Every structure is written in C-alpha cells, then in structure tokens.
C-alpha cells in the first residue's frame, strides 16, 4: 500500500486547498503539520506567532475531523520527520507523494525546502507543490505577472472534500504534545490583545468587514484611530492561509458588483472602498513575488549600490529608544505601545516607524525589520522585507518617502486621542504641547505633575536636521552614475507593470478585461 502526505505549512484550511484535493483523489492520506524547532528559534518569529498558529491548527483539526482525517502533529526537522516516517512504519506502506503549497518564506524555510527536495529525489518520493497565491515560481519576466495573477484569481475555487470522505492515516508513533514556547527556546510573552487565530475567526472578521466596516475603508485606513476598524484586519489570516487569497478576491468582487448595481450613494461609496481593498490584495502578491524572485532581499539591499550606506553606523542607543517607545515623538512612541499590546498597526504608521528609524535615527533596516517582524502578528516575509527596504530607500527604484511624525500627528490625530490612549503621560499634557511635549516650560511641567526628560522623552535628534542630512546621503548615492545604471535591471525584475498596461490599453479594451482586472484597476493610485 502507498499513501500520500498533505504537508500543511502556511495554508491552514480545507477550503480551496489544491494539495488536499489532489491527495484525496489518490487514496489514503496523512494530514501532517510539522512543528520545526529550528524555525521557531529564528529571530523573526515570536511567541504571538506561535500561539496564533496553535489556535489556527486547532481549528484546522476540527475541520479535518469532519472530513474523516485527524491532523497529525510531528515535532522535528522536516527531512528528519519524513525519513523517520519512511523507516519507522513499513506496515503503514510507503509514502509515495507529498502534496503541499509553495511557500515564499524566510531564508530558513527556503533552505529547508531545498533540503526536502533533495531528500525526495534520493528517496523516490514525489513532492508536488501548488501555487498558494498569485505568486509565480520560476517567473521569467515581470511582463506576464499581472496576467498570471488575474488568471489565478478568477479561476474556480476548490470546494473542501466531502464530509467523511478522507481515508485518514495516523503517524506510527506516540502522539506528540504541543511544546510550550520556552522549551523551543523562545523568550518573551504573548501579545495581550492580539487577534485570535483560526478559520472560524477569519471568516467572521471577513464577513463583518464586507457587511459593515468596509464602508469606512477609503478615508479610514490612514489614521491609527479609525484604521483598526476600517481596515479588513485579514492580514494574519492571509499570512497563515486560514483564508485563500482567491476566495477573498472572489467574494469581495461579488460583494462589490452587487453594491455597484445599487442607486444608493452609500452603496456606491462602499463599492469604491472594496475596489481599493482589492488593489491591496493585488499588492500582497506583487510584494511577495519580489522575495520569491530574489530571496536575498531579506538580507541584502535590493540595490547593491546602497551597500555600506548605514551598515557601519549602527546606533544602539537610537535602536533601544525606538524599541522601548521613548523616541520622544508621541506618535512614534504611541505606535510602538499599540503594537506591543495588539500586534497590529496600520500601513501608514508602519511606514512612519520605518521612515523615522531609517532617516531620522539612521538605523539599518535589517535589525529594525527583525524587531518589527516579531511585533507584527501578520508577519509575511515577502511583504515585510520588500516594504522595509522600500521605506528605507534601498530598493533604488522607489521615491524617497519620509514621514514626519509631527505632521502625521497633525493630520491623523489632531486632538491627541491616539497618543493619549496609548501613552498615559500624554493625558497630562495640555493640547498646545501635544505635538512637541518636550517644549513645555518648567513651570507648566510642575503644574501638570510631570517632568520632561523623565516622564516624557526628549527626541534624540532634531528631526528636520537629521532627515535633511539623511536624505542628502541617500540622494548623493542615487545620483551616482553606476547606481543609476543598475536601476533599470531592478525595475525590469521587480517593477509593477500595471500602470503601464492600463495607460496603454486605454478605455476601449476595458470591456475585454476580466472582472478582477476591472475591479483592481478601480484603484491603483500607488504604483509600486
Ligand atoms: C514596513 C512595513 C512592513 C509590513 N509588513 C507586513 C507584513 O509582514 N505582513 C503583511 O501582511 N503586511 C505588511 N505590511 C503591509 C500592510 O501594512 C499590512 O498588510 C496591513 O496593515 C494589514 O492590515 P489589513 O489586513 O487590515 O490591511 P487591508 O488594508 O485591509 O489590506 C488587505 C490585505 O492586503 C494586503 N496589503 C495591504 N496593504 C499592503 C501593502 N502596502 N503591501 C502589500 N500588501 C498589502 C495584506 O495582505 C492585507 O491583509 C507592511 C507594511 C510596511 C510599511
């Protein structure tokens, strides 16, 4: 007898799951999750990811049970687990096939997948991988990428196997217990108010977004006050594959087209919001594709002409002030406090944090990115590292974006509700000093019962001076002849083609566009 293994990784669902369907069609199937101690020791993962994973696996196990299989947990390194499985249980039969989704993960999972590929070849096991999102493995040219994305997103969703239809197989050794994070060498605590894992939660969050919260998506996603409810909050569920990207795209399109048929202005507005949301779903894969095509970007500058820009000037005091939320800029410190408590912050505030770190504090993106990866419950290596480099100005192809935290506070938290919510000391600061509390006169400090330099940090640098200097250094490199010359190859490999296509297609061709293409082209104001 032979059997297949469905190796679950970051695709924790039974719906729209091609590997599960393919395995089920072959006969007996083992549904396996491998908890890899070496992965959990990596510096980009934290206890919150581990606990969120556990919740998501519990939910997956319930769904699999309904289908007739028990989720198997093995603790160990991937090739060792498969080798053990092959040798320990001849009575079970041979593992003939491993089915999984392709994963664009960090350097560690990339190396692990290469090792498993070698093991499969030696052992005569067929390992078949399926595309997980719109990311294309072995992409030859970016020119065809958008077309492939739209084709994947509009293809048919795969239903879950029928109830009790799976012939589930169990591991041939004693059931393993879920290790506590400390036993895997993880330190730190879980994030107290993070989102809860699992498909059931994901579906609830998505439904609520489509029904109600998406009204406020456009216009609501930039302020950290409105963003927690205006944004979809699907990111951690997409990162672990509790929902498939294709089902999110198709369900959103259906809702959007329904709303568009209405004469109600509110519905029209909501439809536009969903159009903006769809364009983010496209970015999701666009950014992950960068890491897929160039795994080194997790570790090195995308444009190697920027090597040496910040590397030798690491400032530990600046980094510690940032991590501890005492940079002195209330908007920055409040974001750090919110992240610590909830594991999430909106896009604009993430960009502001990295911009302040990279320009005003002149910190290299890699250690800052590792710290943020642990803070973000939705850590997705492809998006994360591409965004880190984009905000730090080392891609060589994006305009320099510097977010001034004082201006951000004026625009997105003019009455100080956000900073006062997350920084209790700011509640004692009068309105006129909200933006620059360190300027409070000594007498006023005394009246308010606080001390600048003790209860309220003084910024480590003058923002304007430090960023002017930083921008000048980045721009000096940017205008270097060799650096400029190397840019074309990066644009060719990683640049978005969507805007170019749309402008050259003109209106006439829009009738021939797929539903996804029409929806996504509704909003593509930021071309990355
Ligand atoms: C420095 C930095 C690091 C980031 N790291 C991550 C990360 O590790 N994981 C992650 O999912 N997002 C990351 N983002 C992108 C973005 O901030 C989050 O996707 C978003 O805040 C998640 O909340 P949401 O699901 O409610 O977003 P929504 O606005 O509701 O968007 C829906 C989905 O679209 C995708 N998306 C949204 N914005 C972007 C974007 N700018 N780029 C690519 N995809 C996007 C995400 O999958 C998101 O879940 C990062 C942004 C920056 C600036």
From the structure above, extract its key features.
DNA Cyclobutane Dipyrimidine Photolyase, subunit A, domain 3; 51% helix; Rossmann fold; single chain; binds flavin-adenine dinucleotide; Serine Threonine Protein Phosphatase 5, Tetratricopeptide repeat; 3 domains
In short:
Keywords: FAD, Flavoprotein. The chain is of the alpha/beta class and 528 residues long.
Name the ligand types: flavin-adenine dinucleotide
Give me the strand/helix succession.
Answer: EHEHHEHEHEHHHHHHHHHHHHHHHHHHH
The gross shape turns out to be globular
* CATH architectural arrangement of the largest domain: Orthogonal Bundle
Tally of helical runs: 24
β-strand amount: 5-15%
Strand order of the largest sheet: 3-2-1-4-5
Class of the largest domain, according to the CATH hierarchy?
Mainly Alpha
| Distance between the ends | 51 Å
**Can you give the helix content as a percent range?**
40-55%
- What is the typical, i.e. mean, pLDDT? 93
Radius of gyration: 25 Å
**What is the domain total for the residues?**
3
Binding site for FAD: 217, 277
Region (Disordered): 490-528
Cofactor: FAD; (6R)-5,10-methylene-5,6,7,8-tetrahydrofolate
GO molecular function, one term: FAD binding
